[in-house]
Amino acid sequence: MSENLFNEYGRLVPESLTNAVYEQSRRYFLCDAPSTDLDDIYSRTCNILGPADDLTADDFRGRIEKILSSLESDPATKGITAGVHIPLLIPRMDIDDLGSALEEHYLPAVERAFLQRLPEAEFSNETNGLAGKLSVRDGSRHGQLLEKLAKQSVVGVYFPAMTEYSVPAAVEQIQRMPENCLLTGGIDLCAALIAAPDALIRKDGYPPTFWLTAIQGESENICYHFEAYGYNLKLYRRAHLGQTSEYWWQGITVLG
Amino acid sequence: MDLYDALAETNLSPAEQEKRGELMARKPYVASKLANIEAMEERGEISPIIRLEKSYLCNFQCTHCSAEYYMDRHLEKVLQTKENRKQMTLDEVRLLSKEADELGLARFVITGGEPLVMRDFEEVVQAIDPDRHYVITDTNGWFLDDEKARWLKDIGVEKVQLSLDSWIEEEHDNFRNKKGSHKRVMRAIKSAVDNDLNLILSTVLVSGRTKAKEFEEMCKFCTDQGFGLYVSYAKPTGSCTDHPEFVITKEDADLLREMEKKYNVFTHMTPSYGSNKGCITVKGIITITSTMEITPCPYIDMSLGNLRETSMKEILARGMRNPWLGPHRPDCLIGEDPQFIDLHTKVTANYTHLPVPWGEGFSDENTLQD
Q: What is the domain extent for residue A65?
């Protein structure tokens, strides 16, 4: 794998996909590059999600720098860092039920981080309940993250690089990526939104939606996404039906 | 699970559940279709409200009218031409009602023009069939007194959408170019409520109005009175083509979303009943013009097909696979997206008779790079 897979904006260029995707983007829905102050991310995450006993701030910084330098040293993935990316930390955790973990632990943490950043705004979970309903999507590679999380704190970088992809196109595309590139799920996206709480809030234009691509609801067709509603942040459930929209951004999480 | 149990499990407010329960008692078939919309959406089927523009006759000439370019007065006085295309008949409305019903669609809005000046209004309601569809009428309120409201209820109309463009009497009358129209709206509100018609007020949001005191007072009035205020963004189409300064900013849209927390106010992008469609083009609304063309929203003058040539099912599918209209976007396509506004303005400028036919504006070849 040697040719650059990404365009100048860090978008993973779709190539010969059989599922729905926009070949070109007019870049109408945009995400402002969030701050990536690693000390700030480490301390906020530990304050809100709980301490990462097995990882210091220096360890975190070193591992993020290693992820980014590794991606940049590979001609195929070098372009990914030109796009929006958010370093993230997930303190070690046993997950019995993904939906319960999100509802009871990670979404309240996103809310706390969001309201700390934007006290006048609101966060809401509009999904009508997640407990017992979620599973890991086949082909997403997300199981790697959950296995690792059960043993140690997880460090990674979230790249919403599959802009304007359908969920099945994202699954198709990730198979062509290096093994450490996973489709983004719920816990890692929550961690990214704790790291950059206002990543989806824009005043001078509309932001995209960030999808929990690696997670499915009661059926393959059900997925979830974070979406700004004005100055507010919401989590929605959606029957995506294999369609795509320029408003839908699927994500890649690279672990290190 | 019967319909009443199903209703209790939906995301409807208690007041809305009570209304739906009452509708179930009177019109169980219509109520069951409305209750089924969420399940349809889950299967990828859509259930747009059908806006029926059978006639463009109107007693007003409003500054922001989206239908002005379809009206005989515009064609004849401004463009020196005539409407020579075949107009919608009552038989076609009957066929349309049947076809919509077979697709599970449940709601018709009679619009125009001003529906209450249509001589065949009652025949149109019967052709739609109020036992098969939930029937709503738009109105500017000029003719909506007690007697008219009673008559509307008697013939099967369930809901009235009444236009009010400023809480300040003089501003509304100026915007509507009709002195006394604000007073008539106030009378119409009372008549609709007194005669058990469901009511929403609709108002046009022009740039900066979210910060106006009169707008907040109107929001407060509607909330206090227990009915909703539907806010429609000004779009640079129809008479409003000459008023690009009316187009709202992102700040207006965001401030309005904040006002939704406090008041019973909503736009066509507001999530409702647990459904978050964003811009409702095709997914939540279609317009059928007097020449049987289907457009994806009241303000987009480009057709997705003509019902005399193509089935409604195929026309809706064309809309859903079109990248501009697609499954989901948060903003108003014709009210906020500058690239689409520019495209629409350029395409429609070449036509005297609207909407622009399928294939010449919208087509299966559209891309977002158009």
A: 38-255
Residue A13 included in any domain: no
Q: Considering only CB atoms, which chain A residues are within 8 Å of B319?
A: none
**Total domain count, chain A:** 1
Question: Is A92 domain-assigned?
Answer: yes
Strand partners, A250: A162
Among chain B residues, the shortest Cα distance to A227 is held by B330
Q: Is residue A32 part of a domain?
A: no
Evaluate if residue B19 carries a pLDDT over 90: no
Q: Judge: B327–A245 Cβ closer than 8 Å, yes or no.
A: yes
Q: How many CA atoms lie within 13 A of A229 on its CB side?
A: 27
Instruction: Please name the residues between 115 and 144 in chain A that touch chain B, using a CB distance below 8 Å.
Output: 122, 126, 128
The predicted-structure confidence for A93-144, as pLDDT tens digits, reads as follows: 999 999 999 999 999 999 999 999 999 999 999 999 999 999 999 999 999 9
Residue A7 covered by a domain: no
User: Nearest CA to CA, how far is B255 from chain A (Å)?
Assistant: 7
Q: Is the peptide bond before B113 cis (omega within 30 degrees of 0)?
A: yes
Query: Predicted ipTM?
Result: 0.94
Q: Distance (Å, rounded) from C-alpha B64 to C-alpha B78?
A: 17
Encode pLDDT of B116-157 as tens digits: 999 999 999 999 999 999 999 999 999 999 999 999 999 999
β pairing state of A135-136 and A215-216: antiparallel
Q: Which residues of B256-287 are buried (b: 16+ CB within 10 A; e: fewer)?
A: bbbbbeebbbbbbbbbeeebbbbbbbbbbbbb
